Amino acid sequence: MLHFIPTPIGNLEDISLRSLKLLEAAKLLLCEDTRVTKKLITLLKERQLIDPPHEQKFISMHSHNEKEVIDGLSPEMFEDEVVYVSDAGMPGVSDPGCELVRYAQKEGITYDVLPGANAALLAYASSGFCDNRFLFYGFLPHKGSNRQNALHEAMYNGFVTILYESPHRIVKLIEQICNIDAKRELFLIKEATKLHQKQFRGSAEEILKILKIQNIKGEWVVVINSDKKELGVISVEDIVKLDLPKKQAAKLIAKITGKSPKQCYQEMI
């Protein structure tokens, strides 16, 4: 049987009892990074949380070789306990794993996904943005018009939106948000569940001032509150007045008119 095991995103004590039992029983471990998984197994052994009774085999399976590794698998390999482990968090959520799920479905392999730590959900629950609907965008494109377009879409989709960002681009991201809507309410969490976890809440311009005097090392989750005006009474005229690329504006107009984005774009030009 195949098990997808979420691993702690910072605090080792967040690992579940089910995860420990399966990590101990597994003979084959498919890993986003074998070095990270072997270190995790070593730490769990040192703390006497697991004691595998057999030798374990580790196979690297990350975003760049996922399909290639899957091509080398056979259904017979899953007659024993097999686990897939990403570096931190939930497999398949901004991590490899989805293609392996598809493989299991195609080959009729019994599989199970365990619940566990997820930085996006942790940040959403911590934000205090009381909306039952949200969108998860993961990492935006790194640069250029693709990044700018994606950010505009993230800010004007009518939902609370969750982004991941690296320490190298976090200040740039908040600057870009300020350029679009400096008053937009944000919640940020750095190094979630780790020793130096920090949380910030305020308008984009307030957060930017704070970050410029903070140690920004570590991984970030950014929660963008929805624009209440856009959620309630936005009109086509409101969207046209926004400083948006025409293609992005056309997509938003299509959502509220029911027309196709292509038709809306043609009408705008």
Tell me how many strands there are.
Answer: 10
Within CATH, the superfamily of the largest domain carries the name Tetrapyrrole methylase, N-terminal domain
Radius of gyration (CA) equals 22 Å
Provide the low-confidence segments as ranges.
none
SS element count, helices: 12
Strand content: 15-25%
Q: Could you state the order of secondary-structure elements as H and E?
A: EHEHEHEHEHEHEHEEHEHHHH
Proportion in helices: 40-55%
Query: The CATH topology of the largest domain, please?
Result: Cobalt-precorrin-4 Transmethylase, domain 1
**Alpha-carbon distance between the two ends:** 56 Å
Structural class: alpha/beta
Number of domains: 3
Which CATH architecture of the largest domain is right?
A: 3-Layer(aba) Sandwich
Reported for the largest beta sheet, the result is: 5 strands, parallel
- Give the class-level CATH name of the largest domain: Alpha Beta
Q: Could you say which overall geometry the principal axes of the C-alpha atoms support?
A: globular
As laid out across the biggest beta sheet, the strand order is 3-2-4-1-5
Structure description:
The chain folds into three domains: about 1-115, Cobalt-precorrin-4 Transmethylase, domain 1; about 120-225, Tetrapyrrole methylase, C-terminal domain (Methyltransferase, Cobalt-precorrin-4 Transmethylase, Domain 2, 2-Layer Sandwich); about 235-269, no CATH class. Helix content is about 40%, strand content about 20%. It is built from twelve helices and ten strands. It has helices at about 15-25, 35-45, 65-70, 100-105, 120-125, 145-155, 170-180, 205-210, 230, 235-240, 245-255, 260-269, and strands at about 1-5, 30, 55-60, 80-85, 110-115, 135-140, 160-165, 185-190, 200-205, 220-225. The strands form two sheets. It has a five-stranded parallel β-sheet with strand order 3-2-4-1-5, sandwiched between helices. Strands 6-7-10-8-9 form a five-stranded mixed β-sheet. Strand 6 (about 135-140), helix 6 (about 145-155) and strand 7 (about 160-165) form a beta-alpha-beta unit. Helix 7 (about 170-180) runs antiparallel to helix 8 (about 205-210) and helix 11 packs across helix 12. The longest helix is centred in the first third of the chain and has 13 residues, at about 35-45. It is globular and about 65 Å long.
